[in-house]
Design a protein that fits this description.
Layout: E1 2-11, H1 15-26, E2 31-35, E3 91-96, E4 99-104, H2 123-129, H3 135-150, H4 157-162, H5 167-178, E5 183-185, H6 192-199, H7 227-233, E6 237-241, E7 243-251, E8 254-262, E9 268-281, H8 284-297, E10 310-313, E11 317-323, E12 340-344, E13 352-357, E14 367-374, E15 381-385, E16 390-394, H9 401-418, E17 421-422, E18 434-435, E19 438-439, E20 443-445, E21 464-466, H10 481-500
Parallel strand pairs: 1-2, 1-9, 2-6, 4-19, 9-21
Antiparallel strand pairs: 3-4, 5-12, 7-8, 8-9, 10-20, 11-14, 11-17, 11-18, 12-13, 13-14, 15-16
The chain binds dihydroflavine-adenine dinucleotide.
């Protein structure tokens, strides 16, 4: 064991963590960030840092013997996932029985693996979900600030209309139109100027070469290129990769965090204890909640309340696919970066925001694939097993049903209007049209205003903060990272002014 002291310790390197570290450092506070995953800079034997979706190797997956992509089959055949060597790969899937949660692992968190869709929620729904946050201030100040910090950009509409790489989106748009639904363009953190150079053969291909959920070798403006690069640029931030925080206890007006180190193959390299004055949790909905639940249940932070572990939701995620007619090919060439969504959130009975996502198989499949975000009021609760030291999730299959009902109502309409049907062969060996057993958008566990005060300060303790998706109460109606970033901007500004710079906690 060795020890160290830092004024501010940030756990994780995803959105909430990256914003917090940058603003702390800009204010002159020396900050250490801990990340359980790797720093993704070293090329593998193929000369690339990341592997593609069609050729996954150990870099793809966090400590499993097989990759675990959600669209797991084709014609019910197990042809998508591959055996891999257990390794600190980039995409994790945490199985909680009838619900699996995907998350990015590495310096940059989810920004390394996500679809990059940078969507601001509807103001009315944001107000409904987070009624104690001043929405006017969020939309005037912090959403624009987050979009600028993330370097959000949009696809050129003229190029979009003509390129083979987005035929799949245009086909799905036409079909939505027949069912009476409009589409909206979705901004992204993938650099669309780079994508156009890829298409023109002037830059190495990434989004146009089947790279996305296992990382992009080019074009993706992940956090390591934006917020984290700026944070490191201050000279006051250090990032320790392959460092997993496992326990928290109070110490001398601050906290001591126990950290397990390992190499990328999972070999233990020992334990460290790091003391800090201010502790910021940014391990994501799962990572942050697990640390606080463990601290409550093992008695190291006994004043933590019952709200820790509550209010979790999958953002109503439901994935589905339609089989198009042979006269509607979706194209052999598909950009992995989604740019269109079908906005049916105003439907009073079955609100759906359906993103048109690619099937970059390199062959014609006639498939339209969608990630539908639905309004599911069900919430799960995290549990802690003292024997194993592991976190569980109380979420039963029936809790996904409201989301599936909305998705079914919406896509039945699409199929009727287009004379088409669902694909039943893509989500495992059993025929099924809707994948309701996983989420890309885990939200909640330490909800703002319940487990914390209105700025992420954990109730019962001073100098302890939640910064990430754990703050959001289970549903947002759109993809979450812009909101997580904006909320972190808002909260850290207040905490810096009132707690950190005054020396008060
Ligand atoms: P985030 O999960 O980003 O980061 C947490 C980090 O902390 C991770 O790097 C983790 O390894 C680390 N960590 C956890 N516990 C730790 C511990 N104990 N010690 C040290 N480190 C620890 N969203 C969106 O808006 N648009 C989109 O297009 C998509 N698409 C999408 C696709 C896929 C495949 C996934 C998996 C996710 C998305 N998302 C998305 C969701 C989005 O990526 C997600 O909401 C954010 O990354 C969450 O940000 P956080 O800051 O909460 O944590």
């Amino acid at each position: 064991r060795d020890g160290a002291y830092v004024p501010a310790l940030v756990i994780g390197t995803g959105y909430g963590a990256a914003v917090t570290a940058l603003r702390l450092a800009e204010a002159g506070v020396r900050t250490l960030m801990l990340e359980t995953g790797q720093l993704w800079t070293r090329p593998g034997p193929d000369g690339k840092v990341f592997c593609g979706m069609l050729t996954p190797d150990r870099r793809s997956t966090w400590f499993r013997r097989r990759t675990a992509a959600p669209m797991a089959s084709f014609l019910w055949l197990d042809v998508v996932n591959r055996p891999v060597e257990p390794y600190a790969g980039i995409l994790d899937r945490v199985d909680f029985g009838p619900m699996a949660v995907y998350a990015g692992r590495g310096v940059g968190g989810g920004s390394l693996v996500n679809g990059g869709m940078a969507v601001t929620p509807r103001r009315s729904y944001f107000r409904e979900m987070l009624p104690r946050v001043d929405a006017e201030e969020m939309y005037r100040r912090y959403f624009p600030q987050a979009r600028a910090g993330l370097r959000v950009n949009g696809v050129d509409r003229g190029w979009f209309e003509g390129t083979e790489w987005y035929r799949y989106s245009r086909v799905a748009r036409e079909e939505a139109g027949r069912a009476g639904h409009g589409t909206v363009f979705l901004d992204n953190i993938y650099d669309f100027r780079h994508m156009r150079r890829e298409a023109a053969g002037k830059a190495p291909k990434s989004a146009l070469a089947g790279e996305l959920i296992y990382g992009n070798n080019h074009g993706r403006m992940s956090l390591d290129k934006t917020y984290l690069a700026a944070a490191l640029g201050t000279g006051r931030v250090t990032i320790a990769a392959l460092h997993k925080a496992v326990a928290i206890r109070p110490h001398a007006g601050g906290y001591v965090v126990t950290v397990e180190r390992s190499d990328a193959s999972g070999r233990p390299l020992g334990t460290k204890e790091i003391a800090c004055r201010h502790l910021f949790l940014g391990g994501g909905s799962l990572g942050t909640t697990e640390l606080l639940l463990r601290a409550r249940e093992t008695g190291t932070l006994p004043r933590l309340g019952r709200e820790i572990g509550r209010g979790w939701g999958p953002n109503g995620n439901v994935m589905t696919a339609r089989a198009n007619r042979p006269v509607q090919p979706t194209g052999c060439h598909q950009s992995t970066v989604p740019v269109l969504g079908i906005d049916a959130w105003d439907d009073p009975r079955h609100p759906v925001f359906a993103e048109i996502t690619p099937v970059p198989a390199g062959i014609e499949t006639w498939i339209s694939l969608y990630l539908a975000i639905t309004r599911n009021p069900e919430r799960g609760t995290f549990t802690y097993d003292r024997g194993t030291g592991r976190m569980g999730l109380r979420w039963d299959r029936g809790q996904s049903a409201p989301g599936v009902r909305s998705a079914r109502a919406f896509f039945d309409r699409m199929n009727r209007a287009n004379g088409t049907d669902y694909r039943y062969d893509l989500f495992g060996p059993e025929p099924r049209a809707f994948a309701d057993d996983f989420t890309y958008h885990p939200l909640g566990g330490c909800v703002l205003g319940r487990a914390t005060d209105d700025y992420g300060r954990v109730k019962g303790y001073r100098g302890l903060y939640v910064t990430d998706g754990a703050l959001i109460p289970g549903s947002l109606g759109v993809n979450p990272f812009v909101t997580i970033t904006a909320l972190a901007e808002r909260n850290v500004e207040r905490v810096l002014r009132q707690d950190v710079l005054t020396g008060r906690t």
